[in-house]
Amino acid sequence: MQLKRWHFVAPSVLATIVAIAFFTGGPSVPMDNDTTSVAALAEKEAQPVAEEKDASLGTPIKLAGGITLTVSEFAEFKAKDPEALGVEGRPQIVDITVENTGSAGFDLSSFLILETTLASDASTSCFDVFEADSGVSGVPLDPIVQPGKSVTFKWAMVCPAPKGDDLTMTISLSDTDQATFKTKIK
């Protein structure tokens, strides 16, 4: 029986790779819960820092890159399909306007309500509601807001809280832009 050269080469190469990985400690990436190693500190420093701004409903707020965000006052939401609400609570709706006065298109696809906090129960949050029949579909299908343009869309949620309860809502437009609004449940 004649052995071919690759019968020796392939296992030798594999053994070399395993030995290098074993003796060098593997790749240089931070491990879970590692906050002090050089790799963990470098990774943390490279992440964008979100700038959170306090904002008022109905008042435009200027964000980075020539973006202006306006969130209307809350109103009671009357869904055409009550089943769309999903949970019990007080349905709320707002109009969200994003204006781009910058020089590059702005992508709304990362828009999200980061957090809603109710004064009556800080452990409970509001739930997003989407209902096409009422014109509440979330971010527009074409999420790019071109320079010199603006887009307005409706956002609805159900808040399991009594009328008049204090609500704090944080909106994120990107990794670096966040705005916090305070209002009362309608």
The CATH topology of the largest domain is what?
Immunoglobulin-like
- Distance from N terminus to C terminus (CA atoms, Å) equals 86 Å
Radius of gyration: 25 Å
Number of helices: 2
Share of helical residues: 10-25%
Low-confidence stretches: none
Biggest sheet statistics = 6 strands, antiparallel
The CATH architecture of the largest domain comes to: Sandwich
* Count of extended strands: 12
CATH class bucket of the largest domain? Mainly Beta
Order of helices and strands: HHEEEEEEEEEEEE
What would the principal axes of the Cα set say about the shape? elongated
The share of residues in extended strands comes to 25-35%
Mean pLDDT: 85
Protein structure class: alpha+beta
Domain tally: 2
Describe the structure.
The chain is elongated. It is built from two helices and twelve strands. It starts with 5 loop residues before the first helix and ends with a strand. A hairpin with a 4-residue loop joins strand 11 (166-172) and strand 12. Strands 2, 3, 4, 5, 8 and 10 form a six-stranded antiparallel β-sheet that branches. The protein has a four-stranded mixed β-sheet with strand order 1-12-11-7, with no helix packed on it. It has two domains: 6-46, no CATH class; 51-184, Immunoglobulin-like, CATH 2.60.40. By secondary structure, it is of the alpha+beta class. Helices cover 15% and strands 35% of the residues.
